[in-house]
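User: Fold both of these, please.

Assistant: Here is the first one.
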Amino acid sequence: MSADTLPLLIMTGVTEGSEPERMVSGARQAATLDLVEKALAIPSLRPVVVATNAPDFGRRLSEYPISIELDPPGAPFHFGQRLAALIAQYGMECCFYIGGGAGPLLPADDLAAIAAALLAADRLLITNNFYSSDFVAFGPTSVLADHPLPGTDNDLGWLLGEDAGLPIRELPRSGATQFDIDTPMDLLTLAIHPGAGPHTRACLESLVLDTSALEAALPLMLDRDATILVAGRVSSATWRYVERETACSTRVISEERGMRASGRQARGEVHSLLGYHLEAVGLESFFAELATMSQAVFLDNRIILAHKGLWPSAADRFHSDLRQPDHIEDPFLRGLTEAAMTAPVPIIMGGHSLVSGGMYALIEAAWARGHDVPRHVVPELL
């Protein structure tokens, strides 16, 4: 490989299933097209390789001067093994890996800066989130041979930095670095964010998306007399960002972070304060009481589902994100969605991405619409 170029490896899995699952998959493919076009405008990112399990998407990608690798049909997919095989196939001494739904708001200048920093170092890891990575640029790739390969890309940053000992550079947190496409809630967020690329924008405009709750909630982020509530698996970094970057008052309820990775959900050990309160007062009173504490609620409702020992189908969870209760089979989730939609204040529900990367993107979208208050006060060090 040329010492002047950094190979870019994009992995975009395509899933079938229910209509909302296909919507998410379509948006990921569109975001991949935007990413490919950004990368091709950056000479230091070469070659550009896209791996996918979908021949139809591969044919669409063939319009670009890139390499396309179809996953072996019928073989079980293991992220780390596939990553290592592609690195070996292309002789990559260093690599910039991006998941197909990651970085839809990442500008080309940031991609170029990451490439320049990585190429200037002998040993380095650059990632958007060391503890749960969506994209990583790293070198040398030979360090992968000494460690068990991760099953998911979220574990790649930790393996390279903690286990392999590469120097770690975590990018500043923003919508560009933290937001990715996981659920239909992310499509709603992208629909109101000005930074979506042209292919992603065209995909979103082809869909019927109810953004009314978001449209009502966003101005409140800039209202000094308003309060918003963010609840669920909220990290301390997201909490700080929400406090610093909004003009409104904030309430945060953070609970059950790591419920899946720790195995608590699988063991039936998820316990949520919000879940207990909902059981005590009932659905309608639950949202009515939240409305006495805030003018808008951003709720990671997966913790409530896990608290109740439920995990409805992806179709049900995604229809809930889209505010489509008539399509939800699970009776509890249908009732929760209906109650949220009739609450006296906007209730925005989704998964973990809503209260992580989604909050960065939503706050950016709110400020992008114009404002007449200072963004935030930056204290001077004496």
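And the second sequence with its predicted structure:
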Amino acid sequence: MAKLRVALLSAAHLAMDMTTVAFVYVLIGVREFGALPEAGGAAWYSPHSAAAIAACVLAYDLLAFGLQPFVGAFVDLKKRAAPLLYASLFGAGLCAAVCVLCDFPQGIGAASAAILVFFSLCNAVFHVSAGAFVIAESEKKCAPLGVFVSLGAVGVALGRLYAPAVLFAAGACCAACAAGALFLKTNDQALAPHVERIGRAEVKENVGLAPLALLVFAVFVRGLGGAAMPSGYAAGELYVLLAAICTAAGKAAGGFLADAFGTKSVALICLPVSACLMLFANGIPVLYLAGLALFNTSMPVTLWLSFAAMPRMRNTAFGVMACFLMLGSVFAMSVSVPGWLAFALVLISGAAIAAAPHVSKNKPEISENMPRPRKARKEEGKDV
């Protein structure tokens, strides 16, 4: 049941991101490559000004990601996530259907801005509330987190490329996933054992400022460095889809790799290799895409380690990581970052992730098959 729930919520992640991003692209009127003859088959086109487009995209990012820490704090305080999950999925699905049936929006205005805010809120609430159920399955292993966060990139790509054609279908998928979650009994009772365990667990500090600062720094510079890396390919439809698939594969693999080889190995091996491939092999699409996959292996690892930094506020930690990743990406879009600096930032983020467990007074729980330090094995009588 738990594995099915994680798989369903991952599919819902794809549907939610596809729905909300599709609406953003309908709103700003962007048409992908070659929508008009003058676009020449290789450019974006929109009837709106660059400032209007930037304002809409920025508003969406700030609300959809910036509100996640506050939603997470609410979930941690009330110890309830199911009502938020169903409200976000059914709300996004219904709103998408109404927009399509009413042929709305036709431009940027007050009403369409209000709908944008609503979709952004649905996105923020979904990520944290769905994440709460996945976090409950990630006490001793990182793999469920990787599976959950993976498909969002595919949803973003599909919404970006095929809006408005996919808006109705994506909204219908949101509603279908909500119905599936009901069938799998995704309710607050399913969270109760996890909430009870973390409530009675002995912790040395409720908020580990040192590891939290390292992880926040890591996700910020990772967002900054990743967005500033050379693209490595022409921005065509096929490569956008391939990049999304590789991103998803990397995030999913990152959780399994962390369980098998440890979080430090993922941070200190995958990130440096990815930086080299993305910077020095960016003219070779296959190698660049391999680097992109490796680059994204750190995402579930960072989330998982943040739970040790805030052991009784794990949903808040989830939201904080998402928020600072967005801030790094937005900052990269507003400044010019040379490739060598982006390369250095990715390396630094890997070092920060690897260092976080060592400065944390609360050690993250690890799965039985994760390599443990020799000293720990001796203390358990498993190594002589």
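The longest helix spans residues 2-28.
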